[in-house]
From TrEMBL, chain A:
Membrane topology: Peripheral membrane protein
ABC transporter domain mapped to chain residues: 6-257
MF annotations from Gene Ontology: ATP binding; ATP hydrolysis activity
Protein name: Peptide ABC transporter ATP-binding protein
Subcellular location: Cell inner membrane
Family: Belongs to the ABC transporter superfamily.
Organism expressing this protein natively: Teichococcus deserti
Any Gene Ontology biological process: transmembrane transport
Keyword tRNA processing listed: no
GO cellular component, as recorded: plasma membrane
Assigned keywords, A-Z: ATP-binding, Cell membrane, Membrane, Nucleotide-binding, Transport
Xref: CDD domains: ABC_NikE_OppD_transporters (cd03257)
Amino acid sequence: MTMTLLEVSSLRTSFATRSGRLGILRDVSFAIARGETVALVGESGSGKSVTAASILRLVEAAGGRIDAGRVSFEGEDLLSLSPARLRALRGGRIGMIFQEPLSALNPVQRIGDQIAEAVRLHRPLSRRAAWGRAVELLSLVQIPAPGLRARDYPHQLSGGQRQRAMIAMALACDPALLIADEPTTALDVITQAQILSLLAELRDRLGMALLLITHDLGVVAGVADRIVVLYAGQVVEQGPVAEIFAAPAHPYTRGLLDAVRLDTLTPGTALPEIPGLVPPLDALPAGCAFAPRCGRADARCRSAAPPMPPGGARQAACFHPLPAPLPGGHAA
Amino acid sequence: MAGAGTLSAAPAARGGLPPLLRRLLQVVPVLFGIATLNFLILQLAPGDVVDVLAGEAGAATPETMAALRQSFGLDQPVWLQYLRYLGQLASLDLGHSYRLNLPVRALILTRLPPTLLLMVSALLLAIVLGSLAGILAARQVGGWLDTLLSGVTLLSYAVPTFWLGLMAIVLFSARLGWLPSGGMLTIGASHDGLALLQDLAAHLVLPAVTLSTFYLAVYARLVRSAMLELHGADFIRTARAKGAGEWRITLHHAFRNALLPMVTMAGYQAASLLSGAVLVETVFSWPGLGRLAYEAIRTRDLNLLLGILFFSSILVVIVNIAIDGVYRLVDPRVAPRARRA
């Protein structure tokens, strides 16, 4: 936590809907240090991808609007950048990969050309040199026969190879930050593990920071340094992975963790789940957004939103945080 | 992951024939059907070339007319005429135009280049301007430019071609005197080289623009909707995330993909473009196939008409085979030996 690379503070993003503007991010704050891996976790619709898209201001092209907040990257305020400077950062200092690599790659262009384009958009290289760099990047992401695969079209590669090609494209200009928006969701379990270990390896080798967006806490455990838990467009808890896994403070985080700790289950019992549904963002409860689903909620939770305590490595926005477990105690 | 290359060999060689040859063989029964339909439908039309010849001569005895019919073979039963027609086609002979006293094939071949020139110019114009209009309209949906272009394309979609042609002549030839009203070259002015090209271009402008308006509207709407559909595509977001500018995204990524429906449409339109050429050539007295067909109908020159119809169907078939080839160029996913993972 020495040098802050990216700092997102009080970010609010909204989208236009038929019934007026809908706030998707309602005050999101977190930071990433150089070389650090932060996992942004939460259920579908919690605002993870919108957060990622807001950092590079990609929400604007998708009909979204950043209403308030600050995103500062290497000391620059991304929200007030000129279009040219913003384009230089996108794919330059900040790389991004997406969930579904088949649709995220242009179907009618060769893999090599798409990677070379990412190179040439930021560096004054000849076509030939950029192609060479593309092949080099494909071998960096451990695609066999990179010279041949560069000539392939996306539909000719397997799902794992496509995601590797996407990673190669995002790494084209040695970014300081790689944003990975659910990079393994569309892949089978074996390939997921391969892609994750590749990401971790590249992160260590290239010394870049990684923002890993996922709904899968299993993915987080092995790769991330810190976790940021998002619920209904707000950060509800954040802290180092080991501490949060050992002792979640927010009941929602606890629910998420219980849902993946299948090793503690006895066969024949029902799978653990968080009761109820994520509230629709246009009909949020008055107090804590999680209160209607929370066993610990009381009248106070239902009337006032718990604030995020300032500072500190561990934070949880909850009036009744879970106590740290007793030594040797078992999650009941 | 390494297994991706092993599935490659299978789909290419099925049936043993090269794909193009197989395609051409598939076309034979289609052409046979077209020839038969053409023949039968034209038999239903009243009157024949002898009636017209007699009318033009001013006077003819029934004996002369009978003799003419006999010499043209028109007195024979329909089925015999049909068999003879098929026999001719099989030997690539399109017969003889009794009215113009020339072989039909020679007539068609001299009239083909002007028609091709007109069709290709109109199609290019429609594709280029239509794409431009579609791209611009899609950039700001509901904006003033979109509204304006939608209005203009709707109008050019709805206005009848021949009427537009006549109005263009009235305005640009009669009133303003900017462009010639008809023909392909200035009669009597024996230009050569650059002057000849200029003369040809000046004559081409009005008919080509007139013929293209309808198709221009079709392409504009097609490109607009294709671009809008691609607007939210994942790979467009990827392009943006790697730092591409909006124009680069529009042209290099989105429009490149919008070409796919356009190529499909161009194949469908080959036939209607040819029939559109009949109207435009007639209005602008453009010496092409369409005008020849019109003359053939007017004078009941059935041999000539059958020849043109048959030739046109061959032309449409060839264009469609060519479009398939183009499609493989613009979309690698339909390439015959595409390796799939």
